[in-house]
Predict the structure of Conjugal transfer protein TraL.
Amino acid sequence: MQNTVHFILQGKGGIGKTLVSTILAQWIASKDVAEGQQPLRCYDTDQENATFSRYKAMDVKHVPVMTDSRTIDPKRFDALMIDILEQDGNCVIDNGANTFSPLMGYLIENDCFALLQESGRKVYIHTIVGGGDTLHDTAMGFVSTAKATNVPLVLWENEHFGLLQSVSGKQFIESQTYADNSARVVGRVVLAARNADTFGADIKKMNTARLTVNEVKESDKFNVMEKQRIKVVFRDLFEQLDKVQW
């Protein structure tokens, strides 16, 4: 994987954008090390909950786009684009719900996707669809993102809120909504629902401490079984990411 730019975009808050960013960043970083690539560069544009930037091991750069009057200045996204274009390598950009519309508007208005592609970057948008009560809103977000650009999409299916199925029992990937846009999807990653008392608690503990899976391996704050369950989760997610048509 070389010179790729990954935008995590979904307008609904609390759906797991930062979780996806951290998983993706760790997977790419493992590839970069194996292939001798330049270090991964990570960015956080969330102005309210800049959680991604608190993962010290990932050296995430926070992009301040909010003015003193608490409004978002789209021109401040220039710094993000310039930074991405200044050097080669892979990039992951986490984006909060509060900056979703401004960032998407900026990227489209300034034809940034084309600029990145013309500069030799492969661009991907990672969009999250959640289950349960979040399904409708996140599915609409998936559609609006698919229709707004021609950038390849990676679909993350988050089962934390419930299965991704309608009242009639039809799975999201079986729906017409998905079928109408499936040609744009180059890969799917399922954030599978697991036992909340074991796997769920361990992942929460890891995320609360803002640790990477490699840091967990070396930490004395996690016992052998907690480390094993986290290893199982990330092995599954990394295997799914390996199958995406990058």
Summary: The two ends are 8 Å apart (CA to CA).
